[in-house]
Amino acid sequence: MHSSLQERREKAYAAFRLGARHMENKNYQAAIEAYSEANKLDPMNIEITMVLGTAYAQIGSYDRALRCFTTALRVPPKEATVFTNQYPYASLFANIGLLFDLQENWQKAIVAYEKAVSLNHPEGARIRQRLEEIKKMSDEKPTISSYSLSFDLGQDSKKKKR
């Protein structure tokens, strides 16, 4: 017998929370496993797909991370769900910007960061600051001192339940 949609979403949320605990403990492979399970249970939840991408980024698997972020962007907004993130599309673009930033692909980072700011990401001031740093750089490697992977794990400062 198939689980109801509500039961699947509850199981997905439990796996999502487990993944978050693994992320907090820097156990990224276990987080990937938990988030992957959550994603199978609730594939229209773009927050799950985003944090799965973030976990991949934490282990340096940038291609997989980008695939997760772009997969989430392809979910039609009317069909997309989230658990707590009030700014999922802004968060996706901030994460995409960060991926390109870490790979020193400045032009793509700028485009993604600007999109995140235009979508009112709650960390907009920090993103704008990083944008200015990138735009001022020449060919030297940037320092990411005030900026880290932890700034946006898909869990914005304002949270609400679905």
CATH class of the largest domain: Mainly Alpha
Q: How many strand units?
A: 0
What is the number of domains?
Answer: 2
Low-pLDDT runs of 5+ residues are 142-162
Q: What gap, in angstroms, lies between the N and C termini? A: 26 Å
Structure commentary:
The protein has 2 domains: 5-74, Alpha Horseshoe (Serine Threonine Protein Phosphatase 5, Tetratricopeptide repeat), CATH 1.25.40; 88-151, no CATH class. With 162 residues, the protein is an all-alpha fold. Residues 142-162 have low confidence and may be disordered. The chain has helices spanning 5-24, 28-41, 46-58, 62-74, 88-102, 106-118, 124-136. Helix 1 (5-24) runs antiparallel to helix 2. The chain is 62% helix and 0% strand. The longest helix has 20 residues, at 5-24.
Compact description:
By secondary structure, the chain is mainly alpha-helical. The chain has two domains: 5-74, Tetratricopeptide repeat domain (Serine Threonine Protein Phosphatase 5, Tetratricopeptide repeat, Alpha Horseshoe), CATH 1.25.40.10; 88-151, no CATH class. The protein has seven helices and no strands.
Keywords:
162 residues; mainly alpha; Serine Threonine Protein Phosphatase 5, Tetratricopeptide repeat; 2 domains; 7 helices; 62% helix
